[in-house]
Amino acid sequence: MRLPRSHSMTKRADFLRARKDGQAKAGRFVVLSTLADPALPHLKHAVITTRKVGKAHDRNLLRRRIRAILQLHGARLADPRRLLVTIPRPGSATASYAELESDWLKQAKRLGLLSA
């Protein structure tokens, strides 16, 4: 799945709505929040990295890795018309790509996002 700029969440209200009204599951390395919205034409995603995660280069690396995971597994989403927020947890900067990917997939399955 390609992630064009139009699929990025840019409004603060969307972030807050996904976090407040949606479902969230926390894993060892990421917190995944989602909210189904039939009015959306496609998936809107966001990656929120705070300074608690690490230095700037660590945060940038995590953003790139999470976008790569979403590009790889985004086509498997059962209903792509939703808001999806991924928040790396402190300590995730030391995780390998495989560990980050498995944790993201585990949380997505717990939320029922992935189709068979």
Automatic annotation (TrEMBL):
A family per Pfam? Ribonuclease_P
Origin: domain of life:
Bacteria
Q: What GO annotations for molecular function exist for this entry?
A: ribonuclease P activity
The answer to keyword Magnesium applying to this record is no
> What catalytic reaction does the record list?
Endonucleolytic cleavage of RNA, removing 5'-extranucleotides from tRNA precursor
The EC number of this protein is: 3.1.26.5
Question: Sorted alphabetically, which keywords does the UniProt record give?
Answer: Endonuclease, Hydrolase, Nuclease, RNA-binding, tRNA processing
Which protein family is named in the record?
A: Belongs to the RnpA family.
User: What does the record note on quaternary structure?
Assistant: Consists of a catalytic RNA component (M1 or rnpB) and a protein subunit.
Functional note: RNaseP catalyzes the removal of the 5'-leader sequence from pre-tRNA to produce the mature 5'-terminus. It can also cleave other RNA substrates such as 4.5S RNA. The protein component plays an auxiliary but essential role in vivo by binding to the 5'-leader sequence and broadening the substrate specificity of the ribozyme.
- Identification of the protein by name: Ribonuclease P protein component
Origin species, per record, is Luteolibacter flavescens
Gene name of the encoded protein: rnpA
